[in-house]
Amino acid sequence: MFRRTFMGAAAALAFAMPLKAEAADIVDTAVSAGSFNTLVAAVQAAGLVDTLKGDGPFTVFAPTDEAFAALPEGTVESLLLPENKDQLVSILTYHVVPAKVMSGDIAGKRAKVLTVQGDRLSVNAKNGVKVNDAKVVQADIEASNGVIHVVDAVILPE
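The structure assignment produced for this chain is given below.
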């Protein structure tokens, strides 16, 4: 009797649990990380949430809250104003490559990669990884529609 009850409960539990957890998209992954609050606010202000929740694949070089805080005083607040939306979109899309690029894909190489913004980023993976002047401090955070690489600075288009 105990065995039948135990087996029935185990079977019911197995059917109630998902077979495979779905990976979160880039936006939800950034939100759940907790260290990208400024980036998420900027993506919302720029109207890019739906884009970054799209199919992708995308590679996002994501500046941390500390990276945004290192900008000159008032910069972030100014960029979040509606009249500066075009500039904000340009900066944010400069952090996005329209392909999934894992660290292993570029290890030991240098490349100029095209961004969604239209300009190219200089990536140097010969000794660690630098994107323009920003250092990748955590790589390969996979999302359902791409990958996030955490950078220690906001990368500004020239």
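Interim note for the steering committee: The radius of gyration is 20 Å. The chain has eight helices and seven strands.
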